[in-house]
Amino acid sequence: MSEPRRAGRWRTGQQNRQRIIDAARERFMRDGYEGATVRAIAADAGVDVAMVYYFFDSKEGLFTASALTGPEHPLHQLATLLDEGTEQIGPRLVRRFLEHWEKGGVFDSLAGPLAQRVAAEFGVADAELRVELVASHLAGLAFARYQLKIEPIASTSIDDLVAWLGPTVQRYLAG
Length: 175
Known about the structure:
The protein is mostly helical. The protein is 70% helix and 0% strand.
């Protein structure tokens, strides 16, 4: 007779990690950074609080992991925008990114494959560094605007932020 299977156990740590990320993403989007607690996220994920700290070290680490995973990461948006052409890619990417966050979106990482495309499209060296700079710049913008609500970034219009940041992102990608 085989031993009974333990209820509630995951086959791998990666499944637990992903479940925590999914719960964190939902909780951060619903309650904001300050309102979300590690204890509530752990409960939502069905894991012990210690497991959250094991995988992410801190609430900040968990936020970063949850904010930078999912199908709407800025680098996914970059791939879509490249399909539409390279003209003014920087301002268009900043606009797409900000408009998505206005709707409550979060993002995923895929710099490797996209870096090859950026290198081919723009003929630039260090394409992986360039796309990581774009991703980190936009993630920092989202954190400052939507989580920390730093002024005047939080209240500046999307059009103004595009005007400020679009040329920088353009330079990262094509300059």
